[in-house]
Amino acid sequence: MSAGASVQSVGDSRLKRTLLQSFLIFVAVAWLVPMAAALLSSFRYFERDTQVNGVFSWPKALTLDNYREAWRVGSIWSHFGKTLFIVLPALLLILLLSSMVAYACARYSWKFNVFFLVLFTAGNLMPQQVIFQPLFRIYKNTPWPDLLSDTDTGSLLGTKVAVILIHVAFQTGFCTFVLSNYMKTIPKELGEAAMMDGASVWRQYWQIIMPLCRPALAALATLEFTWLYNDFFWGSVLLNQGRERPITSSIAVLNGQYASDYNLIAAASMMIALPTLAVYLALQKHFISGLTLGANKG
């Protein structure tokens, strides 16, 4: 290769890298601008500032009144507890059940393991709204003791358990698919050696495979927590009392009949987003390592 061709190749590589970096910066700014505008609006007065001068104008004064009002009117603290009552049990059940199915499909060869894995994964291709009407009727006709109910309806409809069950049903397939692919990268010799030492199937799963799946579990926990926490649809249609609904629906309380204080809604949104941000920061190291698994494999 001549010196001129080498210089041209280096120049083309730099141009491509510059274009890629410019595109990524543009996308990052496009995502950050609405968030920055919402954050700034949450500290501004609405009627005498944002409504008059616009969202992207420089604020004349900053205030914490929007946060105080959103906390009081939206009952943010109460909704935090109700949301975690749904999210945490659902998250634990999803990861536990999906890891069991993934272990059976990835570590053992049996007649229907591929079909079983495809069946679990295919459930994620169906829009959740399609099954709303039959699911609503099933829950309504399913007896449920009032002792375990939030609203004493006598049926499963209107209870947090109903929301937990539908989350588990829909999210287990995705987690099973991810974990099964992760488990396939773990050498099977580990299980064979443990079996030779007398380890049972449960012990192999719990003490060998599960610790090795920690990066994947952390990545899935972060994603699933965000999806479950931000769910609006099922919490709104299955919990018929507003005070029992998850935190995302508490924003609806801040909407007026004829007008909306968008700065107040922005303040509530900022507070609602804090738990997902905290979970990501806590699991950031494992989350990134889980997403980059296999990136350097041939």
Keywords:
MetI-like fold, 2 domains, 13 helices, disordered C terminus
What kind of sheet is the major sheet? none
Rg from alpha-carbon coordinates? 25 Å
SSE pattern: HHHHHHHHHHHHH
Form type: flat
Distance between the termini: 28 Å
Indicate the CATH topology of the largest domain: MetI-like fold
Helix content: 55-70%
Number of domains: 2
Low-pLDDT segments = 294-298
CATH class value of the largest domain:
Mainly Alpha
Word description of this protein:
The protein folds into two domains: 3-41; 73-291, MetI-like (MetI-like fold, Orthogonal Bundle). It is an all-alpha fold and 298 residues long. Residues 294-298 have low confidence and may be disordered. The chain has helices at residues 3-41, 46-53, 65-73, 76-107, 113-122, 132-140, 160-184, 188-196, 201-212, 214-229, 233-238, 262-282, 284-291. It is flat, with a radius of gyration of 25 Å. Helix content is 68%, strand content 0%.
Write the layout of secondary structure elements.
Layout lengths: L2 H39 L4 H8 L11 H9 L2 H32 L5 H10 L9 H9 L19 H25 L3 H9 L4 H12 L1 H16 L3 H6 L23 H21 L1 H8 L7
Helix pairs in contact: 3-12, 4-5, 4-7, 4-10, 5-7, 7-10, 8-9, 10-13
Concise overview:
By secondary structure, this protein is mainly alpha-helical.
